[in-house]
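Hello everyone,

My group is preparing for a crystallization screen and wants a predicted model to guide construct design. The compound we'll soak is zinc ion. Before spending weeks at the bench, it would help to have a computed complex in hand. I've included the protein sequence and the ligand's SMILES below. Output in structure-token form would be ideal because that's what our pipeline reads.
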Amino acid sequence: MTQESEQNQLPRHMEEKAVSTPESEVGSKTDNDKVESVETPEAQERVIECITNLINQRIGDAFKVYDDYIKLGTPKKFVDCIKEIWPENNGSPYSGNLRLYLPKLPIPEDIAKNFSIRFTVKPDDYENHASLDSGGVLSIGINEESTSQDAKITERLIKMHVYHEIEHIYFPGPNADFLDLSDAKDALKYVSDPGEIRAFAKGYAYLFKTKFPGEAFSQEKMSEAINEVGYRDWFATFSDSEKRKKYLELCGVDIFDINDQLIGLTSGFIGNIA
Ligand SMILES: [Zn+2]
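Reply:
Good plan to model first. Here are the tokens for the complex, ready for your pipeline.
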């Protein structure tokens, strides 16, 4: 995929604003195995799990390398550690940003051939920045300053974004290009979209499982896990009585219902995440 084609594609999902970064070259991609079509929900779940695990394992490995360099007294930037553990890295040197392709995987060719991961260094909105565009580019914001302050938290946040975004392969969210997220109605339309609720639930389930392994869902503990990584707590928003009144008047939507959906999905995912 060329830079031009990527720019011409509308993002089918954006967490927040995208960060556009000039990219001068894209390397060749790896061959990928063909597999059976992915039509059943079970097969889709397997694909999602496979891609998520692959990416997050590499990210975990990169953080180990990052730790090792600190212990050796020769700290390196996190993105440089990613390059070390990701041999499929195309090596593009552009502006400190990095694009990686998935190696051979038992995943459908239509996903595998285009899928790549871009780590964007120092985006202007690190905390909320992750997106999956229609061309199969997963963008993840990396803030080197946050990384050095608390690598474990940063690692958890990045992995949560991966869980969220990979879920969107089969459960896309709304196209944020046509929504004004600073408008209360549009923002609600965005976060209450079924694909979005599901993707948030998946990311939240990962946070919960990591913080409270083996425990059943509780909203209190969930909020603790979310607050620890400094992410957005939609459970708190959707269970707020004042906000409930406001949204009922504004758009006739009961956000308590959305909270119930979010809790149901998150609870289910907690049991399934390895
Ligand atoms: Zn999303």
